[in-house]
Design a protein that fits this description.
The strands form two sheets. Strands 1, 2, 3, 4, 5, 6, 7, 8 and 9 form a nine-stranded mixed sheet that branches. Helix 6 (213-227) links the parallel strand 11 (199-206) and strand 12 (233-239). The chain is α/β, with parallel strands linked by helices. The chain is built from 13 helices and 15 strands. The chain has helices spanning 19-33, 57-64, 83-97, 117-130, 185-195, 213-227, 241-250, 256-275, 294-301, 317-326, 330-333, 355-362, 367-376, and strands at 2-8, 40-43, 47-51, 72-80, 101-108, 136-137, 144-150, 154-158, 161-163, 175-179, 199-206, 233-239, 279-281, 308-309, 379-383. Helix 3 (83-97) packs across helix 4, helix 7 (241-250) packs antiparallel against helix 8 and helix 8 (256-275) crosses helix 13 (367-376). The protein folds into two domains: 2-163, VC0802-like (2-Layer Sandwich); 175-383, HUPs (Rossmann fold, 3-Layer(aba) Sandwich), CATH 3.40.50.
């Protein structure tokens, strides 16, 4: 009996004129994920079919679960459009599962098939009842639901349905630049942006010796987790030490975080132009810290015209943590290595900064020269989901 992984597109099916672009991108992403396995991939406008070897399924499943653009998928048995063949497979599936209750659900897109969906349900259900004992039909809450899809050339029969990663295929949108710290929020923001098809580069601001190599390694590990949902990701490491030291040497203590974030946004603006990033992505959540009040966001955001996407802006911390645990970044994020956003936090940062005061404070030092230097001297690591090696940047 032949088997195939039957992929259902979900949100992709709502696309019209550019539907083929989305499907082709998804097909390429799946092919890339499964390139080390002996598979054959066929696609049409409604489904994608992956022929595979049974012994590879558990590993293939792990790969498919991290491909955005897949709504649901099943492992389906493929038989000829013959009611006797269908009956045999359905009975075998019921006997292998041995449930107390079952239900048959048929879809017949092949209108030349001699029986309609209702008649197929009755024939198959009757065949199961006739050849088994102590098994009943339950149309409301069955232990085993078997779905039968009769199509033009073949019939697909399956029971268990798996949830896909959802969203849009990675690469269907232009590239964004993720401000990736070592905290909980920014990796989740990156994941959610990728789920909408945004290809990412990551940017990490470090301030050696005030921050540690361990803090950088933590960010590399977080980048690696995000890379599991696509290909390799470029991690740009910005030396922020001189800028941060000048801020804390020259500016009002309560405005230091505001000025620091404005400098980061200026650097992100430059990097977007340099690497063709269309948006800045970050993990800011409204009201979570002083720099994330609406007043602070307005003052900080004013230094760039690049759109800023904040995927977790309206989530509370527990919701963000739930996602972080699901995508396996939480335990990395809580490692006790501070980044430059936390190592110099003042006792009383301003919650509602004034624009004119922020401009006055940052004009106390030559930040343009320092920003130029930071952009010109950054280091880039290409992080792969499976490669644990990288060059030492020091």
């Amino acid at each position: 009996m032949d088997k195939v992984i039957l992929i259902k597109y979900g949100e992709l099916s709502t696309k019209k004129g550019n539907r083929n672009f989305f499907i082709n991108t998804l097909s390429n992403n799946v092919s890339n994920k499964l390139k080390k396995y002996d598979v054959s991939i066929i696609k049409d406008r409604a489904h994608m079919y992956i022929e595979f070897r049974d012994e590879d399924f558990s590993n293939i499943k792990k790969e498919i679960d991290k491909v955005f653009g897949i709504h649901k998928y099943n492992v389906a048995n493929i038989v000829d459009n013959d009611i006797e063949c269908i009956k045999d497979v359905v009975l075998e599936m019921v006997m292998n599962d041995n449930p107390n209750t079952f239900k048959i659900e048929t879809k017949r897109s092949n209108k030349s098939f001699p029986l309609n969906s209702y008649e197929v349900n009755n024939v198959l259900g009757g065949h199961v009842l006739k050849n088994t004992s102590n098994i009943k039909v339950d149309v409301h809450n069955p232990e085993l639901l078997i779905k039968v899809e009769i199509r033009d050339n073949k019939t697909y029969i399956y029971s268990k349905e798996y949830d896909g990663a959802g969203g849009y295929p990675l690469g269907t949108q232009k590239m964004g630049m993720l401000m990736l710290s070592g905290g909980i929020d920014s990796p989740v923001a990156g994941y959610l942006a990728m789920k909408r098809g945004v290809q990412l580069d990551c940017v990490y601001f470090e301030a050696i010796p005030h921050t540690s190599i361990e803090a950088r390694n933590k960010v590399i590990d977080l980048t690696r987790k995000l890379a599991e949902y696509g290909n390799s990701i470029n991690l740009h490491v910005v030396n922020f030490t001189k800028i941060q030291e000048e801020i804390y040497r020259n500016c009002k203590d309560e405005y230091c975080i505001t000025i620091m974030r404005r400098m980061m946004y200026r650097i992100m603006d430059r990097l977007c132009k340099k690497y063709k990033g269309y948006v800045i992505v970050n993990g800011e959540s409204i009201g979570q810290v002083a720099s994330q009040t609406l007043t602070s966001m307005n003052v900080i955001n004013s230094v760039t015209n690049v759109p800023v996407i904040r995927p977790v802006a309206c989530l509370d911390k527990l919701e963000i943590i739930d996602i972080a645990k699901r995508i396996d970044t939480f335990n990395i994020s809580i490692l006790p290595y501070e980044d430059c956003c936390t190592v110099f936090v003042p006792k009383h940062p301003v919650i509602n900064p004034r624009m004119d005061t922020a401009i006055y404070e940052e004009e106390k030092f030559d930040y343009e020269y320092l920003i130029d230097e930071a952009v010109e001297t950054l280091n880039t690591i290409k992080v792969d989901s499976t490669d644990n090696s990288y060059s030492d940047l020091l």
